[in-house]
Amino acid sequence: MSGAGLPIRVPYKTVESTDIPTDIFVPDRPIQDARGLTPVIIMFHGGGFMLGQAKMNNKDQIEDCMSRGWVVMSVEYRLCPGVDVLAGPMSDARDALEWARNGGLGSAMKEAYSERVLPDPERIMAMGTSAGGHLALSLAWGTANRPLAILDFYGAKHFEAEFWNRPIEQIRSKLPSLTPANDPVFQSLYEEKVTYIGGASLEGQSEGGARGPPSAPNLSDPRQLFVMNMIAQGQVVESIWSSAPKDLHLIDPVLNVHSDWPPTAFVHGTKDFMIPMEMSQYMETKLRSAGVETAFFSVPDEPHTFVGQMVKGSTTWHKQREGFDFLERILRRTYS
């Protein structure tokens, strides 16, 4: 990883005596305003809110952001089903933003880097893939401060849609049999209240974050087995939100669109069967109807989680990079 050495890893909150950390990447050539402050982008990994870890955020995307002169926060968050999506992932995402806004990030960077690079609390952007895309969107409501702009890669949304109740045969075919959510093999998962490292993600990376050809899920791991079963049986929403189908307005970005929503771009593959592209198109239309600045970038022939297997310099790489160009355009306007 290029940049000013390896990232620093510091906690942004503590829950039940467990530190929840973020990795902080600092660019070699930061953008700085007249006060010497540098913009920040917060990244959230995917994994159905139940798998993955910050190490699985795409390293090429992180380097691209640093090459643009941005500080990168690659954030861990607590995983469902031990906590529900609002009390765990969404709460952590919002607390990470508040920590960056209210001096926590600045203090951590000052200690590590003296005053060579200091973050700008007024120029914080957010992005994420899949579940992480949802978490980036969730920063647009329910928090005192909002990001400057948001970039959503095929994020989970529109939980009222019938799609979320349908089994997904492409996943079902990978399982020898179906296991219900209340099977004793999964009991330990419901007892894990502060787990934020959740094995291999749905993006195709290994548990260590390395990319390579997609491998078969490790069905001997209860967490991976649980997630695959919930996706296969159309029970993801119930797994992360036990009140479903009630109170979806507390967790669904589509149900919280408002006129002060930050500028938002969507990137979605046209061959996505796990979260169909139409869901992102639906939300983008709702935002535009509310007067929000938006952009939509469809990536031809790519499935869900394509970021995990994306090759730098490929056609897909250049297409998805238009989402980051959108963020950069929003950012540049703040300097004029």
UniProtKB/TrEMBL annotation:
Domain of life from the UniProt record: Eukaryota
MF annotations from Gene Ontology: hydrolase activity
Gene3D superfamilies for this protein: alpha/beta hydrolase (3.40.50.1820)
UniProt keyword list: Hydrolase
Stretches assigned to the BD-FAE-like domain: 33-144
Annotated InterPro entries: AB_hydrolase_fold, BD-FAE-like_dom, GDXG_lipolytic_enzyme
The protein's name: BD-FAE-like domain-containing protein
Source organism of the structure: Talaromyces islandicus (Penicillium islandicum)
Lineage start: Eukaryota, Fungi, Dikarya, Ascomycota, Pezizomycotina
